[in-house]
Amino acid sequence: MPSLAAWNSRAPEEARLFNPAFLSSLSTEFVKAYGSKRDGSAPLTLAAIALAISLHGGTRRRLPYSIVTSLYEWLQQNEDVLIGFPERTHGLMAYIREAIIFAVAQEVLAIREGHHLQLGSKKAPFSKGFIDETTAETRDIIDRTKFVGRWFAKSGSESSILAAWGVRP
How far lies 133's CA from each of 30, 73, 138, in Å? Predict the structure, then answer.
């Protein structure tokens, strides 16, 4: 897994988009959405996949708007979104790891048995003020991350979802 440059050496775009606080809040939104349909937790691997999906504009804009749409049928009809997906996900892992460590340290996420994440003792929602003042793209990233949480929760096992996206844990 690639290591990250020192914070002050990162490009401004990289520092903003992959900010640990932002990514940890996205992860929290995913865990909340996924966990509400399951047992209150979400596999760490699926949280990473969800962020890779919602942060990539080309994939995010093509996601369906209803969880009634089968993940597997959608992937068959949109196979091109899988091109380079495992590599993009791998490239994001250092940022996602940094964000999860940050979220656990801030007690907004907690690690549960195995490799599951659950909501921690503190809240890390995106505030209404943040949502109102942020860009349309940022709002879309947040909304689509929540959607992917609900979608994955109804789409079967962790291993099936990972295999469908062409990713190995």
Answer: 21, 36, 10
